[in-house]
Amino acid sequence: MLELEIELEMRGIPFDHTGNRLRCFPHVVNLAVQAILKELKENPVVPVLEAPTHLSASTDLHVYADALSNEPVGQCRSIVNACRHSGQCRRRLQAIIEEGNNNGYWKGKLPDDRETLPVLCLLRDCSTRWSSTFKMIDRVLTLHPAIQSFLQEIQNADIAHLSMDSKDVDVLCDIHQIIKVPHAAQELLASERTPTLSMALPAYELLQTKWTELKGTIWELAHYIEIGLDKLANYICQGRKTWIYALAMSWF
Fold it and tell me: Which residues fall within 8 angstroms of residue 81, CB to CB, at 6 or more apart?
C-alpha cells in the first residue's frame, strides 16, 4: 500500500496508504484467537499459578494448571483424530450415540436435563479456518459421554488413554467459553446480506468488552484472555486510521 501511495503521488493522485487499508474482520479475530491458543500451549502453568487466589480460595490452582498442561485442545484434537480414524470408528461412535438414545442410557448424564445426544460427527480444526477450533471443541463437549463410552470399549484399548477426566473437561469448557465470544462476533457479521463494514469497529469493541468481562469470571485464564485483547487492540488501533470505517458508520 505504501508503494501504491508513492506511485500515485508521482502521478498527482492523492492516496493515503493507511487511510485506504481495510482489514478482514474474521482474519483479525482469528489471529487473536490463535494467539490465545498458542499461549495456552506454550505457557500453561506459570500464569495460572500467579492468578489472584483471593478471588476464589476453593480453587486449587495447581490442579487447574496440571489440567491445562495436559493441553486440553490438543487432547481434543487427538480424540477427534482417533474417532475419525476410519469409517468403522465413525460408524461405531454413531451407533453408540443411537443406542444410548434408544435405551435411555444418556438420561441423567447430560446438561440441561436433556435425555438424548444429537447424532453428529466429530469435526477437525484448521488454524487458518475461522472458528474451526471452536466448532471442534463444541462438538467434542456435546458428544463427550458417547466419546467416553467409545474409548472405553475393549477393542479400543490402544486409545483409551485419550479419555478426559472431569478436570480436563472443566478446563476445556473454560477455553470453549472464551473462544465462543469471537465465534459469535464472526457469525453476527457473516449472517448479514448487506454490507457490514459499518459494524466492524462496534463488533471489535463488543468483543473487547465480553473478553474483559470473562477475565473476571474465568480468572484462571485471565492472562491468556489478555493476550487476545492485546492482539485485538493493535488491529483496532490500525483500523481507526482508516477513514472508510467512519464513513460507513455515518451511512448506516
Answer: 124
* Residue found under cell 459499518: 198
- As to burial, measured by CB atoms within 10 angstroms (0-12 exposed, 13-18 middle, 19+ buried), residue 137 is buried
- C-alpha span between 214 and 233 (Å, rounded): 17
| The residue count for the chain | 252
3 state DSSP class of 127: coil
- Residue with cell string 470473562: 214
Of 61-75, 121-135, 157-171, 189-203, the one with minimum mean pLDDT is 189-203
Cα distance between residue 77 and residue 165, in whole Å: 16
Backbone angles phi, psi at 149, to 5 degrees: -65, -40
Residues 146 and 97 sit within 8 Å (Cβ to Cβ): yes
Question: For the chain, what is the largest distance between any 2 Cα atoms, rounded to a whole number of angstroms?
Answer: 77
pTM: 0.87
Residues 87-125: pLDDT tens digits?
999 999 999 999 999 999 998 888 888 899 999 999 999
The enclosing H or E element of 70 equals none
What is the structure's pLDDT at 58? 46
Q: C-alpha grid cell for residue 20? A: 485506504
48-55 long-range contacts (CB < 8 A, ≥24 apart) are 48/220, 48/221, 48/223, 50/223, 51/219, 51/220, 51/222, 51/223, 52/219, 55/219
